[in-house]
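Possible regression after last week's pipeline update?

I re-ran a chain I had predicted before the update to compare outputs. Posting the input and the new output here so someone can diff against the archived version. Not blocking, just want to make sure nothing changed silently.
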Amino acid sequence: MVMASRLLYGMAREGVVPDPFGRVHSGRRTPWVAIVFTTLLAVGLISVGKLDTLAQTTVLLLLGVFTVVNVSVLVLRREPVEHRHFVAPRVFPLLGIVISVGLLIHLVTQQNRDAFLIAARHPGARRRALAGRSPLLARLGIRAGAALSAEKNCPSRPP
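New output (post-update):
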């Protein structure tokens, strides 16, 4: 929950999502609009779906985010910076990529294995079990691709 609200806050500051998500509380300096939005979204998703499915989807998305962040670290290292800054040893982002991708592969293959086990026990369940997982992954891939292409076309705001 904390990461999701901070992610929305950062994206609002960069102009990727609407400005209200970047509003901060005057006393506490927390992104209150983003916190309220992510909390309502989580409550809504929990109330209309299964908690284990939501947890699996969250893990899948977080591993994808961690992979992209580690790749970004390697890409950003190529750009020269005029001031002194911390530089992490290259091995850490590489390890992060390998571990995140490995866990993603394990998660996806584990879900498919579970779907096939369900199908083996119940006639006609194979189609329902696989149909429940594949469209979700396809939709996530389409949305991630659209977000990445939109981000490339969206110039960052000056600080």
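Follow-up from reviewer: compared with the archived run. The two ends are 26 Å apart (CA to CA). Marking as no regression found.
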